[in-house]
Write a structure and sequence with these properties.
mainly beta; 42% strand; 5 helices
Amino acid sequence: MRLIVAASLTAVALASASPALAADEPAAKAVAADAPAAPGAAEAPPKKDAADKPSAPAAVVATDKPIAPTPEARPALDDDEISFADRLVLDTGRHEFRPPSPDSLSFSLRGEYQLRYRAMNDLRLEAPVRHREAGTLGQNQYLYHWLRIGARFAYRDKLSLIAQIDVPRGFVVGDATQYVSAARDSFAEDTGRDNYADKRWYGVRPRYLYVEYNSPIGVFRLGQQGSHWGMGLLANDGDHPTLFGDYQRGTLTERILYATTPFGKGTPLNLVLAGDLVFQDATADLVEDHDKAFQGVAAVLYRTKRFEAGFYGVIRHQERTVHATGDLTPFDETLTVGVLDWAGKFNAPVPGTRALLYGQMEAALVLGSTSFLRNNYVRPTDPTAPRDPERIRTFGAAATLGVVGVAGRGKDQWGALVGEIEAGYASGDGDPNDGTTRRFTFDQNHRVGLILFNQVMGWKTARAATIAQDQEIVNRAAPGVQLLHSRGGVFGAEYINPRVIFRPRNFIDLKGGVVIAQTTADFVDPYHVGALGNLRNYDGGNPRKHDLGIELDFGADARIKIDQNATVQVGAEAGVLFPGHAFDDALGVSLPNQYLGNFKLGLQF
């Protein structure tokens, strides 16, 4: 039974998220902040406002900002002077590494412990062929936690060793899911994955271990690092908090990186070069799946106090060895893509007010080909016929525009009222059988709301990928179907997401948001096309209905400072999704309204 198309969405998972692919924003920031000049470059006078680094909403905060070369001391702000900072929009309560000592050894330890209780109504899913009773996800509540610890050993301000690890991290107690084992974090009783068992509270996930050298000619990094660029649509390190939802995993690479300011210290132009072996991202796992994914990265970043614009290009080649019917029939699958990604942000004072206008954007184009998929548009009745590689042509973009009213004076300023709107577009693939993959998938850590993309579409694609590999249906699953799962990222959709934050006090956030979305192509489930031979959506209904629905989100968060080095976090957030007709089943029955609550307790230290 043919499941060739079932893999078609895979290439997108490969092409879109595959860019673990991205240049390193933190490195660029490190260079921009205070990196040494290239040899022979003219040295520009140091900027007096260099401390007020331009930034944008929290989605673009550098992962390891604290480990960048230490900037000059910040000039004191006048009481009426306002300057943009990420914490005005999204205050995370995090504590940064202490600056390294300029003339001796130093050590700094930072981290967080987070506990989450999630409750939701059961989600209707496509039932497996021989398990018609399993027509839902089967999960209504669970408790989850993680402890993330980061450390920096520094020799003066020139040489540092940076480490970060999640231990423990995992599912504590609650309801198991059913028939979604294709998901990497499925919360199932038994997934068969050796390294990351889903129902395990004591999981260990190593993240960073690298050396950074602040040399006279630029910044060098070597080792396992996170990779983050722009708004995190493609490369997201999994360490950037968002207004709703939580971050997970992230893009991790074995990387050698060089970054510099070629026209001198303090000048706005920055260059970054890197070579990667991907440790783990949305489509590759060096340890678990033995994927060999190599990347070359080149990035250019121009940044001033109020404006930043950057471009990076990536070439990625990925290989894995699979078997046709047994150990004696191995063959290699390959993926080769190029990524063109533009990102930028700005901030500006609103004349006559104590308010700041800000914005950011990212747009990415992914082009390439892959044999991870087997297109079926050439002589489909002949299984021995040679097939051309699947073409990859995907595009995704997002932009945010907002305004923040500033309260407080001097160094105690805070964002009293924030209003912003995000719009996004991810190309879709309405014909998985035409030899071209068009579905673009955002990284799962670029959160848009609580329910629609992360919960509903994430689990529906996980169920489709799981039953597409069911040996009760096929003897050997089509290549790539294991990558159909969106992992909760936006895919094949366009949306608008207005959000608001009100802070009656500087440590209390009252927040709300709306997500309105529709698909950008026919909403086709590749499992239905490949295994059942019909064009249907993920519920077996009409794929030409594009309305995904309207989601309302709201919540409250508080940060209680214990001392200078510890902050307790408490909060709750909830959402309701009024599903659109894109989720109607074969009988035209709508998906019931979906509800989800997320209760949060944390400690930042």
